[in-house]
Amino acid sequence: MHHAAVATSPIERILDRLSAAPRLWNRLRWIAEAGFNGERLAIARELRPWAGDRRRFLDFGCGTGEFAGDFPGTQYVGLDPTTGYLRFAVAHRPGSYLASTGEALALATATFDAALVCGVLHHLPDTVARMAMAELARVLRPEATVLVLEDTPPPAGQNPAGHLMHAVDRGGYIRNEAAYRAIFGPSFSVERAYHLRSGICDYAVYVLTRLP
Q1: Which pTM value belongs to this model?
Q2: Which residue has the higher pLDDT, 156 or 32?
Q3: Which domains, from first to last, does the chain contain?
Q4: How far apart are CA 7 and CA 203, in angstroms?
């Protein structure tokens, strides 16, 4: 679910053109994030999907469906507003897909048991991000688990490639921990929070529980 800012520099315009080609964009991200191993380990550890799992999983901002294969296909729904990404996902990934914005989900209330939010919120201004989290809370059942992985600034003096990545990132709202926690709103409690590096990308990881 990527609400990118309007490109204003040559680098941003190049990234916009690259991101419009799902296969190429996936490959570039796969290289930058070392095969997405960090994200996949977090999914396995925190959401614990398995082949016979009957829980319903929502990938909130699924993009091209990169992580669809980490969930039981019949129990997975990917949601994103970018129809080009969704066409790619439908053709190449398992699961079901829906075109929708995060602020107005075309989904029934309390129908999902867990959700993944990976690299979404740093594309959204505060007001829109809070609305999206409120909508996510609406479609989740009480005590549902949400795994949030969001871009965060690399530590000072470390990961120079990551600092460069953030300088050209199309998301204009990379936040610190306090700011991300403020986005989650009153419907979620933060069970755990930690740092994760996937390739050259630094992520803040939050494991949330949907409050009753």
Answers
A1: 0.86
A2: 32
A3: 10-210 (3.40.50.150)
A4: 23
